[in-house]
Write a structure and sequence with these properties.
The chain is α+β, with helices and mostly antiparallel strands and 549 residues long. Helix content is 46%, strand content 19%. The protein is built from 17 helices and 23 strands. Strands 11, 12, 13, 14, 15, 16 and 17 form a seven-stranded mixed beta sheet that branches. A three-stranded antiparallel beta sheet has the order 6-19-22, sandwiched between helices. Strands 9-18-10 form a three-stranded mixed beta sheet. The chain starts with a strand and ends in a 24-residue tail after the last strand.
């Protein structure tokens, strides 16, 4: 890029740097964002289709989970990357609604492009969009209904709604029941404050069986086996000791050299090592433990003594699993065996090693009031198990959102049509050019019911006209589209329920991302790295391929 000064070119940016300005920059960014939105739009709803993603190693992922699709896609354009960020944020904050947020952002930009063609300034559109997003948030809160955290039936409906249309749909009733029980097990209630840490719900995947074989374990599953075949395979009324140090003879802290000049000295040295290991096992036995789970290694000689005492042992358990075991069994994680007592021991009904497929797994079951539980996910193939896990992870996002917020909305496009209706009324009270932007936001909200209808093979115009008419009636704010029958029905009665928090986050993140992309009128992209010459500093000083020529 160069400027002219008295006929002499003045270099400002490095040679090869790409620059797009004004309407061209806006058009390019909006197009990139729309392409991302279109790529996931067909996955929306119960009749949404799946995508097959193949990475450069040939690994295949089959899913209709929005965030998984966008993470797996090798997105290059910077505006497209901003759309992927929307999905990631939605996933991290509320665990579901990723497709909704991305499709909504794409539609907001599409409508904004039409306003730009009418010479409405981007900052005016941005201002209107912000006002509309704020109003939409208020409308959603107004039409939300309260839910009791002890209302297991409603929680189950929320979980089923989250799973509908995904690979796990055929067993959604069973899976929803499993997830609701798991979340209710780990909930912490302090007065009116409800906190749920989904990390306290462990998921383990194993191919084999059917999706219906997925089960909730009132305890923890370790993808490990006992350290010695002579140990008991099953221990009832288990008393569990958790150790995060090695059952091995420690090396000295400093480099030390021992000179042995006599065979008896060597024997005494070995005997002392054995005695130390035997003492460790004695301390475990004296504390009353019959199961040992160790975060580090267990020496062969220590294994021998553990076998003699009939103690079941597992080694090299993950730190995260040790913490979950502590919450599930009530055991304290100990570092030094010298202070080990019966107070440090945890309890479980059964600890057993079970062969699943080709692998051995250790089940710690029947814990009393565990504050950490496990879901063992089963399915016919690796791809099915992965998709079931994604569905369960979505549920583990929406259920805490409902229980912490205690607010739900009807699904099936009902809240979007209700918001659009209220925004159109609001736009008339604002006037000016912002009114056009607010109306564009209202039209954009209706992309969700339109996409649900299109994906179900229905006529989107007929469906939208019917929805708008029903929302004019008293109590019509719960009317949404039942894509199975193709009719407009009361979504609460149909059991299609979504968390308020998910919808508000989708509207917020879509609106903010659309405003950010709209306000960009100049894109300056570093020159591409020189692939032939290795891209050193002397070649171009670029920062990688940004997708701009």
């Amino acid at each position: 890029m160069a400027a002219q000064l008295s006929g002499q070119p003045v270099l400002i940016l490095k040679e090869g740097t790409g620059r797009t300005t004004g309407r061209d920059a806006q058009r390019t960014n909006i197009t990139a964002a729309k392409v991302i939105a279109e790529s996931v739009k067909t996955t929306l709803g119960p009749r949404g289709m799946d995508k097959m993603l193949v990475d450069n190693l040939g690994d295949v992922t089959v899913t209709n989970d929005g965030v998984t699709i966008l993470k797996e896609m090798d997105v290059e354009h910077p505006a497209a990357k901003m759309m992927v960020e929307i999905a990631k944020t939605q996933e991290d904050v509320v665990g579901d609604g990723t497709t909704t947020s991305v499709v909504l952002a794409g539609e907001l930009l599409k409508r904004a492009e039409e306003l730009l063609e009418q010479d409405i300034h981007p900052t005016v559109i941005a201002s209107g969009y912000r006002m509309a997003a704020e109003k939409a948030r208020m409308v959603l809160k107004d039409i939300a209904k309260d839910v009791d955290i002890d209302d297991e039936e409603t929680l189950k409906k929320v979980a089923i709604t989250s799973m509908t249309g995904k690979g796990a749909e055929k067993a959604k009733e069973h899976l929803a029941g499993v997830v609701v029980k798991a979340v209710r097990a780990v909930v912490d209630i302090d007065g009116d404050t409800v906190t749920i840490d989904p990390d306290n719900i462990q998921t383990q995947k194993k191919e084999g069986g059917g999706i219906e074989d997925t089960e909730l374990i009132q305890g923890i599953v370790l993808d490990k086996e006992r350290v010695h075949a002579s140990m008991p395979r099953r221990v009832e009324d288990a008393k569990i000791c958790l150790i995060n140090s090695a059952l091995e003879v420690k090396e000295t802290e400093v480099d030390a050299k021992i000179n042995i000049t006599d065979p008896n000295q060597l024997k005494a040295f070995i005997d002392e090592e054995e005695k130390m290991l035997k003492d460790m096992v004695e301390k475990i036995k004296d504390a009353g433990a019959n199961v040992v789970i160790c975060q580090k290694g267990i020496d062969d000689m220590a294994q021998h003594y553990l076998v003699k005492e009939g103690i079941f042992a597992v080694r090299r358990a993950k730190k995260s699993d040790m913490e979950k075991l502590s919450r599930a069994t009530g055991a304290r994680i100990v570092t030094n065996l010298d202070g080990l007592s019966n107070d440090d021991i945890g309890h479980a009904g059964v600890v057993e090693e079970v062969k699943i497929g080709d692998d051995e797994m250790v089940f710690i079951r029947e814990c009393k009031q565990p504050k950490a539980v496990s879901i063992l996910i089963r399915g016919g193939t690796e791809h099915i198990v992965d998709e079931v896990e994604r569905s369960i992870q979505d549920c583990l996002g929406v259920l805490p959102a409902v229980m912490e917020d205690r607010k739900v909305l009807a699904g099936g496009g009902a809240p979007e049509v209700g918001v659009a209706r209220e925004l159109r009324k609001y736009a008339k009270s604002i006037g000016g050019r912002e009114q056009l932007a607010i109306e564009a936001f209202a039209d954009s909200m209706e992309v969700i019911p339109r996409a649900l209808a299109e994906n179900a093979g229905l006529d989107p115009i007929d469906v939208l006209v019917d929805l708008r008419a029903r929302h004019e009636d008293d109590g019509g704010e719960t009317m949404g589209i039942d894509v199975i029958s193709g009719r407009v029905k009361d979504m609460y009665e149909e059991g299609v329920i979504e968390p308020l928090k998910v919808k508000i986050q989708a509207v917020d993140s879509a609106g903010e991302a659309a405003v950010m992309i709209l306000r960009i009128d100049d894109v300056i992209a570093a020159s591409k790295l020189d692939k032939e010459g290795g891209g050193g500093p002397s070649d171009s000083g670029g920062v990688g391929d940004t997708g701009f020529e």
